[in-house]
Every structure is written in C-alpha cells, then in structure tokens.
C-alpha cells in the first residue's frame, strides 16, 4: 500500500539516475494537526512580539536599543520557515522545524519568568536597562510573552511524528517507507558532527551573554545567574544540545534537516539579541558564549543539509563506514585517554610559589579508577571478535574521565582564585587532555554503533517491558546520585546541579544526562547491546560513588552523603537491568 502511494506521487525526475524516490505532498495532503500547529506557531510568534511591545514590567525603563523589529524577525523565522516548506510541498521538513524550535520554548519561558521574580536580575538589555534599584512589578505583557512560548511549545508537540496523519496517507508514507532512510555515511557523519556542535553550543549558552561595565546590567553566566534563570539556561542548553543530536541522528532526511534548522533558529532568537546588545549598548562588550553557540549550530545545519543532498544507495555502498577501523580508532583513543588520566593522577595539579604549602588535589585521585575502567574496556576494542560486544559499554564508561576532570578542575580553579601565587600544574593540563581524548573516543564509538545498526532490521522491535521497573528505579537513583552531595561535613559546601553550581557541576550534569540517555535507549536496544550500555552506565556511576572513599580527607569528620548511597543504589539497579536485558528478549511484532 505504502509503495503504491509513493510511486503514484513521483515525478519522472525523481526516479532518474537510480536516486531514491522523493514524495512531494500538496496542501490537501497536509494533516489537520499540522495545520493547527502552523497556526499556533504564527500565533506564538505574534505573542512573543506583542509581550515586549506591551511592556513586561510596570513603568519599565527604556531598552538599550530599538530591538523590537529584530525580536519580531527572530520570532517569525521558525513559523515562516515551516509554512515555506509546506508551500514547497515538503511538509515533513516544515513540521520538523516547528519541533526543533519548540524544544527550547520551556527554557526560554523560565528565562522570561525571571521578570516576575526580580526584573533587575534578568540581564536583558534588549528589553530594558535599569537606571535605579527600585523594584519592578510584572506587567500584563509578561503573561502575553509566556503565552507565546506556550503556543510555540504546543505547536511543536502537535507536529511531532506523523502529526496525526492517517496510516497509509501520503504524509504518513514519509515515515512508514524505510526506503527513504538516510544513508549510513550521512547519518553517522551528521551524528558525530552533532555531538561536537551540541557540546560547543551547550557551553556557549551557559557562558555569560556579554561583558558588562554597567552595574545595572549583570553579565551572569549560569553559575552566577539567579535560580529561576539558572534553571532556564540549563534547560535551554540541554534542549539545544539534545535537539541537535536528535535531529542530526534521525534516520529521516526531512526530520534531520528540519529539527536542526528549527533548533538553530530558536538559539538565534536567544543569542542574536545578546550579540546586538553587546555592540549597540554603552558599556556592554561582546563575549564568546553566544558566538560559540550560534556558530556551532549554524555550521551543523549547513553540514546536515549538504550531507543529505545525495541519497543514492549505490553511491552509499561505495562509501560505507568500516566498523572495524572505527572500533580500532575508539580503542586507541581510549588507551590514550586512560594513559593521560593516569599521568594526571600522578602529576602535580597545582604549582605554588612564595613559600606557600601546596594544596592537596583530592579530586585527582578519581582519575585512577576512571582510567582503570576505560583501560579495561578499550583493550577489547582492538580485537575484532570482542569489539562489537564491548563497544556500547566503552562508549558510556569513558565519560567517567570528563566527569573526574571537571571535579579536578574545580579544585584547581578554586585554589587559583584564592591566591595569585597558585597556578595550574602539568596534572591539570593532562586531565584536560584526557577529557578531550575521552570525548573523542565516545564519539567514534557512537559512530561505530550507527554503522553497525545500519545492517540490522530494527523496525519491528518493541520496548522491553521487563526492564520498566529496574530502569525507572535507576533513573530516579541517578538523578539523586549526581544531584545530591556525596560527602557531608561541617562547613563543607559540595558542588551541585540545582545549587552551588561550580566547574565540577559540569561533570555532574554530563553524568546524569548520559545515564538517563542510556536508560532510555536501552529499553529499545537489542538485548546484548542494551545490556552492555547499562553495564557501562553502572561503571560510570561506580566511579562517581568512589568519590567519598577517595576524597573524604578533604573535610574533617566527613560522612557519606545521600549522593553516595544513591550512587550505590543506582549501580545495583543498572546491573540488574543489564542482566535482564542480556538474557530476556523483548517481544517483536511478526510479519504476515
């Protein structure tokens, strides 16, 4: 049925030169739910402009520059792009643009909600530049603005998947017919690029939006931001990174193009006003954060579109990815990362001058167990027979090195800020090198997994429901394991995700995101691979659980905090899940 629908909609040019067929759908074939989503996208753009025009606070001071036309253009870009793709008979791409832009709407809503809590701490010179410290009261325009974010989020929700299309319809055929899947080369290369771009974009979004010499306009990074704005920035950064990876890794070219384009447009809506304010407002200066975030996503968008120009399977077979070489490359990078981590653990972290005593770098002790785990999983990748089975665990467990590197850098930065006589030693630089090599190894291992899955039919696989209970428990334990302190002592303030956000918090945030992602993916993975993923996550959490044992000397009368106990519980839940995933096969649909 699907193939007949697709064939009937082909133009003669679409079948030339052996290229995969492309469906061109008219307006009459657009699902009703997508039409509503387009309307909500336009309505959301209007509300996003109307709110600032009405005023977000009572008796608002003037904006730093005339930003309303710029805000209007940026708000209108996602829905106009979506409508344009629908008019060009590519509604699946238009729907994906709405999905991508909607992913950042909740975080942006939290950022704007800061106007209701304390507008003086918002750091939004395109909206207002305070001149006095008198409190500012929220005005009706703020609720209009928040309603706009809600409309954008709802538009993306309605556009997800088939957007309500009836199975067998022309629009649904784009998702049902797997002959239109992306090539292995395009999907794998896009995914690796997306991992790099997502990391850069997340870091850029979490940095200060500009530098400020104006006492009334704070240039706050995520560490210095007020709580509500901090959660908004974290949500925006996480959603932007997730959207980039989800879009670039999609098997559907329309979804890949549209989601990445939508995420980029939404990030531009946040960063372009920051860049404009830095150049147009007195005593504000450009900062690297917005430039890094926007540049990374623009480059990813261009790459995804270029990589999907050719979808000829005959050409793709000639450039098929070699999983053996990828396994070997990941193993070598893993060995190099483990060696650098061991060198960091045994090298001087801090150089002290002026006769001062050198502080003890307790956190660097964790490099040893992290390196041992990575070393144990990297060696099998060098041998063809063991590489495929070990790779999923390695791709997850290698993140333990960046986790430790973030904690170690926290101690280095703290000591350097306390005294000019303290500087970073060779151990600190080796830890950074180990973290970079570990991330590269994880990316290569992920690319090998993409290449392997291209040869496996996963279309009929369902979720393994026997894993539901242990995976749910592991997810809850993981949030507490990384979000709560592993050590308690009088006068000791541990870094955290929800509060006391410091350099070490980056590692905690990375750890919980990776573990939660593994929990989600493993429920749908093939049993051996799902079990290996969960085992790798257990190794990652186990390294985190060792922090109390190896670093308790840094505080007097230290006791294990809730993070330690929840880490141990998470390890147990992940190991149970890994065992179940390895021995129990989920039900699959049978073909008739």
Low-confidence stretches: 1-23, 310-320, 586-592
Overall form:
globular
Average pLDDT rating: 82
Helix content: 55-70%
Instruction: Say how many strands there are.
Output: 6
Number of H- or I-type helical stretches: 22
Range of strand content: under 5%
* Strand order of the biggest β-sheet: 1-2
User: Helix/strand-derived class?
Assistant: mainly alpha
Largest beta-sheet characterization: 2 strands, antiparallel
N/C terminus separation: 14 Å
User: What is Rg?
Assistant: 25 Å
Series of secondary-structure elements, N-terminal to C-terminal: HHHHHHHHEHHEHHHEHHHEHHEHHHEH
Descriptive tags:
disordered N terminus; 6 strands; mainly alpha; transmembrane helix; 592 residues; globular; 22 helices
Structural features, described:
This protein has 22 helices and 6 strands. It is mainly α and 592 residues long. Helix 3 (68-87) packs antiparallel against helix 4 (91-102), helix 5 (105-118) runs antiparallel to helix 6 and helix 9 packs antiparallel against helix 10 (253-280). 53% of the residues are buried. Residues 1-23, 310-320 and 586-592 have low confidence and may be disordered.
